[in-house]
Amino acid sequence: MGDTPRTDRANNADVEREFQVFYAAHYAQLVAQGTMLSDSLQEAEDAAQEACMAAMAKWDTIRSPYHWTKKAMSRKLVRDRQMRRARWYRRLLPQSPPDLEIPVPPRSSVDERMRALDVLAALRQLPPRQRQVMILLAECELDHQEIAELLGTTPNNVGVNVHHARRKLRLLLGQGSEPVPTGDSLDSVRRDDPLYALIHSTAVWLRQGIHAKQRADRKEGNR
Length: 223
Known about the structure:
The protein is an all-alpha fold.
């Protein structure tokens, strides 16, 4: 999804209306991306809300709100995971992924649900850094340089992680084991690329489920 068109803002009411349009258009997608990135719906919701509020505070200075907010959300999720890892290492505790709550779209078919769950399960089997670069590149649509800056690494290292992640995902998702060229990335891959399509369709499926969850939460709150 692209950015909501910007308009000239004459007063705070205009800013508030424009932000609300942006929030309604992009919040569920941000949470879906964050869930795939962090393996936690709750963490993704918290990070997306924090990023949206930060965007609101800087609204007049942000040229591309959706892109800016994706990066802010991703930065928080990556930083929080690094902090958790540091605490685990200090306590000598093993790392275990949290249970992943999945909001299922109400009209989702059995095949759609199984396919999405297969993709999420495959992503969970990747090392954290490989999963991060795949989601940041394939779904958050950041480039190698942006990902490298966010993760504190180099563009070359990002490419290496994408290369290994794609090879493992192809095997896990039954797409064959053909050799993947060194430095393989999604930078120039079309949307009909099978691996990209699976990741993107899973994000869309999650977004629909999150929309349904929002509606249910609002309905419950109005009772």
